[in-house]
Task: structure prediction
Amino acid sequence: VIVANRDMSLGEDIHSYSNFSEVVVTHVYPHLTVDFQRHILFGYTDLTFQSLKENVKVARLDTKGLCIERVANKDDADLPWTIPQTHAALGKCLEIDITSVQDKTFVIRIYYCTSKTISGGIQWFAPVQTRDKKHPFMYTQFEAILARTMIPCQDTPAVKAPYDIEITCPSPLVVACSGSQVGTPVKTKLYEDGQEWLTYKFAQKMPIPSYLIALACGDIHRKAIGSRCGVWAEPSLLDKAAEEFSDTEEFLTTAAKIAGLPYEPLWGHYDLLILPSAFPYGGMENPCLTFISSSLITGDKSLVDVVAHEIAHSWAGNLVTNSGWPDFWINEGFTMYLERLILGEKHDEKLRHFHILLGFQDLQKTITEFKDAPNFTKLVPNMEGIDPDDAFSRVPYEKGCSLLVHLEQLVGGKDKMIPWLRKYFSDFSRKSVNSTQVVNHFESFFPGVKVDWNTWLHGTGIPAGYNPQSFLDTSLFNKCKSLSDKWKAGGEGTSAEDIKWDPALTMCFIDILINEEAKLSSDLLSKMQATYHLSEVNNVEIMIRWIMLNLQNENLAYIMPILEDFVSKHGRGVYVKPIYSNLIRLSNNGKIPKEQVKAIYKRNRSFYHSVICNAFDAQLNN
Result:
């Protein structure tokens, strides 16, 4: 998707119209009602601004799919406004005339409603699409540039502000937000139909970027899993989710110890909201309320490491934030590095090293997938004209983590690296930063340490000579490699006992076969299935790898029914995007009818989030 170029007179962020260097939002306060009949929210938002320069004539905001009804000042007098620019991906620029505003700090109220058809950041589910099938459900997912689909705002991570929010919904539904609930819901009646409505209020006192504003509304309930932690889910899933994520308190304690800043003074409580499996991400680090895909509930806690990742975001990403989407690695690379420090502290250093190596396998796989788009293999890609969702991949996560592992090696180990990490979080707390600031901060802490920053940040692929296997503990990785070698040689001497280990090792074993492009016959893959029963595991990370291995080896008669069932149940981008991309490749090569691929996609399209639909509609929804 091509977005705007500089000739569109954007602000300092290439993905935002806002003129935040002239006038900046310092507080956001939406008052909205959830309308499940029309699939919209309506009401108004109060924005508090501070002028940073003299004689600023306009305030420009990002909107997308919003029907603006009226703009007013603190005295409820109309303010003139126009829509001078519009773009399919960026939405519309709302330009408000503030020449009549005398104060340096002022409030603007904007009345509007969202759109049913252009609501990329808001997903709606009918009762039949929910787990318990009793009530409708809605949730928001704003990263990267979709907050503008619910709130007129300066939709850039360069701007961070606290927010309050009031959400009115039909009883008995419940609202949860990325903040702390204020009081109890207030009963009201909106219409003369006897329906009772409830107004919930939440407050987030920490300054956060717009993409971290989040809410969900549905038949959800909370269960405590610690003194400061809880789980939200539909009733039938609540106890199971609470058991699955019962280690959350331990993760939180360990993370705060490593980060050097206690959690509670920053954020207060930490809750998890279990979302339908159509959620396009494994987790989303909304402050105080991490969103987690129900796909990750396995019954054996084998995928709970995602909680360590989302908790790590409380410092890496939420407290210290990338100032623009080309620097996304600052959010995700630091988070992956901190996540693995948490796992090492919770388990042992050998497991931390293994997860770094497993991530490096992911990085190698992703770089191969981007062989025709090398720009996206840079840590700081050129994002002019690029929608951030189109650039989303494992590169900022794993190449970013690889850079930090490389720095750890250069400075003499994690015991020397962690003090810098703590100072980084402390010095940039509540701020947004770019790559240059990170580099300067590191160099001031470690004077004399030579780093090839240009190659790491702006070079494509993996820097020449970097291979973590050369300096990390590879004992667990070698077990996976040994098993993959056995199967490449025909599978002799293998048995079900092979994979009675941590599920992460099974993931690594399959990844090695994929990355090495192992040529496995249909008979050999059948033997692997008969030995390990991989299609029957209740672990979505193993299942996606099993599907991809079979697709790579064109074992289509076997895998297609399994694949079709999988994409109807799981909407996470890192699962469905490579599946559909490979199906398109196979259809282009004449291995599978294009109409069959389109039919699969169209059957499930209404289940997917807009970031998935935007990626494939042009090829498969025609």
Notes: The mean pLDDT is 94. The first helix runs from residue 235 to 244. DSSP finds 19 helices and 22 strands in the chain. The first strand starts at residue 23 and ends at 35.
